[in-house]
């Protein structure tokens, strides 16, 4: 048993975090290249016979003579081989304090005699970042510092750890204790599973796990117990049962209380935010929102030529209104730092007017509308455990009238009225002296916003104007709220770019931010518009193509054109298909067989002068010289007489100039066919023959009425039916010649005929573009 154990250990210096330490969370370490060589040398040696599938290259299991050759070959080769266990796990010990932790391997790329540990492992071993010092030469006047003779540069000293190779059993159970109260199992379950799968090979009893849930929030757990019992377990290729137990009874009671409070404030409850949902034009919605939360709505239907007006009425000026379109280039819900239209003002009602000419509405499928109350800027008392929701009314209506100028009531005054020099109000001339005496003594006029205040009122004492824009207010709260929204440095969470104010950040995140989410037209996934290896947003090819950097790269993949089979890049497919459209619209109608019962074209074969296909012309063909066509005319006349007198006898025949066809139609109409004598038949067929042009040097345009085969008859019926559908009221009307060509290409299948017509045939009146 000892022979199959990997025995290896080494004492290595911990690499400083600033030089090659793993940035990712987890328990994986980075060892030097020499450690891999030592591990391979110390790997347990397993006999070849333990693996019956290992044979020489010439071994043939179906040849009995090779079994003897195989046994002789095994005697001359190494009968045992070295094999590293999978996965490799290590026990890392800090000799300074005796603390230890188990870890997996990331790679063998560390500097010689060093081991790189993640921040989790350094914290578990009790190695703070302050333990790493820089050593510089003594001749610089510094004491207790050394020179690295090999490099001639200042060297670093830090703690050393002992790394032992030790295999851990596969874990089946782990118990975690949250360090804070209020965790909901639904919050951490999926996050914990993904975090362990991506970052951990082992779990050590007593270590602290930090599971990030967002950019600003994370869950912290104490690993309390594992099974099989011991110091740690391996979590690779095993089914692990996870149990969450409160750290103490007080924490359990506090957690239960917080869950009940969250349930009471859940969307749709009396103490929580409203649910939101789909809005309709003209619908007045009464709702409420908790500070720090959003209520999301969606407008799906409106007329593209109407002006939309979104109005929010509330008594709390801190409620904000945000709107964003939903389309291929805009997928996110509107938020404070990401929206196309927004209103942060303290006005009531808040109004957003969106005109149909706004370029942001291009290709918009719906409108997302969100309301929000900021935790920090809200006047709602947040010191209590249950803040009160803010009520509001929301309405979306259409406003087609253009506001060229609103009439101001102050502009209407009597002819003898005079304007006060202080408050700019129109008063009768007879009372001007009394009014101005009172007004100058009690009122003050703000020359910037043209508002009048009482001199001793709190509004005038706290009245302010922003030096950077035209905003103003009458209290300190509005000024602080304005500064935090419009004049605070904001960092984009996707690209780390800095902006002044939330509106500038929101415009960046909905336009030129690399992390802006789009619906890629090629891979049909919601992805950032620019990946790490994609070209820049200002790249000339990106600007000329009108695609995002992701689409430009993803559109470089090739595919086969479903029309012609040519290999085309995805981003060029639209242009390629437009060439097909141009060819389709420009194509002349095909020539079809002039036999009214046949459904074939004359594209490749057939008698071009008569206008008959090979099937219809075959019974008329002879090899005698007949330049005037007299003999051909007699043969045509005899065929008509034969059809009318005896019939063709084909069960599918529907020819009006055939006895069999007339009998079939009479049976379907429950009538008897008319009896015709030879003179009567000649009266019917002679005009058909006389109108024909049978000379070989001229083209005939007169129709024929010959009986044809079942395939030709079926294709003709299909073509006539599709042509009639379009004539009655279909979306597209195709000429009968194109319908016959489609039925011939689709072998009479009606659905395939429609598909062929949509791809290759121009509709009547259709033009390119």
Automatic annotation (TrEMBL):
GO terms for molecular function: polyubiquitin modification-dependent protein binding. Residues 638-665 form the Ubiquitin-protein ligase E3A N-terminal zinc-binding domain. Residues 170-245 form the Ubiquitin fusion degradation protein UFD1 N-terminal subdomain domain. Signal peptide: none annotated. It comes from the Eukaryota. Residues 323-342 are annotated as: Disordered. GO terms for biological process: ERAD pathway; ubiquitin-dependent protein catabolic process. This is Ubiquitin-protein ligase E3A N-terminal zinc-binding domain-containing protein.
């Amino acid at each position: 048993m000892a022979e199959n154990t990997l025995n290896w250990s080494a004492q290595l210096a911990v690499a400083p975090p600033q030089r090659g330490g793993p940035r990712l969370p987890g328990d994986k370490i980075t060892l030097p290249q020499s450690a891999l060589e030592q591990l391979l040398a110390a790997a347990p040696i397993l006999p070849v016979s333990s693996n019956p599938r290992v044979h020489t290259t010439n071994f043939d299991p179906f040849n009995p003579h090779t079994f003897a050759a195989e046994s002789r070959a095994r005697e001359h080769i190494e009968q045992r081989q070295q094999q590293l266990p999978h996965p490799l796990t290590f026990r890392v010990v800090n000799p300074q304090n005796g603390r230890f932790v188990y870890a997996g391997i990331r790679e063998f790329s560390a500097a010689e005699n060093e081991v790189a540990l993640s921040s989790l492992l350094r914290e578990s071993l009790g190695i703070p970042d302050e333990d790493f010092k820089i050593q510089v030469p003594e001749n610089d006047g510094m004491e207790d510092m050394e020179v690295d003779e090999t490099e001639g540069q200042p060297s670093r000293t830090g703690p050393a750890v002992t790394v032992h190779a030790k295999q851990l059993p596969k874990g089946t159970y782990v118990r975690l204790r949250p360090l804070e109260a209020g965790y909901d199992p639904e919050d951490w379950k999926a996050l914990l599973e993904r975090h362990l799968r991506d970052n951990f090979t082992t779990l050590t009893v007593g270590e602290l796990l930090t599971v990030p849930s967002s950019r600003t929030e994370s869950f912290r757990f104490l690993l309390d117990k594992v099974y099989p019992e011991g110091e740690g377990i391996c979590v690779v290729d095993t089914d692990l049962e996870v149990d969450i137990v409160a750290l103490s009874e007080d924490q359990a009671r506090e957690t239960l209380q917080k869950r009940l409070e969250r349930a009471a404030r859940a969307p749709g409850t009396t103490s929580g935010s409203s649910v939101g949902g789909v809005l309709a034009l003209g619908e007045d919605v009464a709702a409420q929102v908790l500070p720090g939360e959003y209520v999301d709505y969606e407008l799906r239907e409106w007329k593209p030529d109407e002006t939309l007006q979104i109005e929010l009425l509330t008594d709390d000026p801190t409620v904000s209104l945000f709107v964003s379109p939903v389309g291929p280039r805009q997928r996110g819900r509107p938020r404070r730092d990401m929206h196309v239209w927004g209103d942060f003002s303290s006005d009531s009602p808040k109004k957003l007017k969106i005109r149909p000419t706004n370029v942001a509405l291009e290709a918009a499928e719906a409108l997302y509308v969100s309301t929000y109350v900021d935790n920090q800027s809200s006047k709602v008392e947040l010191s209590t455990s249950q803040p009160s929701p803010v009520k509001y009314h929301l309405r979306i209506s259409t406003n087609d009238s253009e506001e060229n100028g609103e009439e101001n009531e102050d502009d209407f005054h009597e002819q003898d009225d005079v304007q006060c020099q202080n408050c700019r109000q129109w008063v009768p001339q007879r009372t001007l002296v009394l009014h101005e005496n009172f007004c100058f003594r009690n009122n003050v006029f703000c020359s910037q916003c043209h508002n009048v205040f009482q001199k001793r009122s709190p509004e005038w004492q706290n009245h302010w104007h922003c030096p950077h824009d035209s905003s103003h207010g009458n209290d300190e709260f509005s000024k602080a709220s304005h500064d935090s929204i419009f004049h605070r440095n904001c960092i984009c969470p996707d690209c780390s770019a800095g902006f002044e104010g939330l509106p500038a950040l929101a415009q960046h995140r909905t336009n030129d931010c690399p992390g802006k989410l789009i619906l890629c037209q090629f891979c049909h996934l919601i992805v950032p518009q620019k990946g790490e290896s994609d070209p820049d947003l200002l790249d000339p090819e990106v600007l000329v193509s009108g695609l995002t950097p992701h689409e430009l790269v993803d559109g470089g993949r090739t595919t086969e054109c479903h029309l012609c089979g040519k290999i085309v890049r995805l981003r060029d497919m639209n242009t390629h298909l437009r060439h097909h459209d141009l060819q389709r619209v420009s194509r002349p109608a095909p020539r079809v067989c002039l036999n009214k019962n046949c459904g074939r074209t004359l594209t490749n074969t057939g008698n071009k002068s008569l206008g008959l296909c090979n099937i219809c012309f075959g019974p008329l063909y002879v090899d005698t010289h007949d330049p005037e066509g007299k003999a051909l005319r007699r043969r045509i006349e005899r065929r008509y007489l034969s059809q009318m007198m005896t019939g063709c006898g084909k069960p599918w025949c529907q020819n009006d100039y055939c006895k069999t066809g007339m009998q079939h139609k009479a049976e379907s109409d429950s009538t008897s066919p008319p009896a015709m004598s030879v003179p009567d038949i000649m009266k019917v067929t002679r005009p058909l023959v006389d109108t024909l042009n049978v000379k070989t040097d001229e083209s005939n345009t007169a129709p024929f009425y010959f009986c044809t085969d079942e395939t030709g008859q079926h294709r003709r019926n299909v073509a006539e039916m599709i042509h009639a559908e379009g004539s009655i009221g279909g979306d597209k009307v195709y000429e009968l010649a194109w319908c016959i060509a489609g039925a011939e290409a689709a072998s009479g299948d009606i659905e395939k005929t429609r598909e062929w017509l949509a791809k290759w045939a121009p509709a009547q009146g259709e033009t390119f573009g």
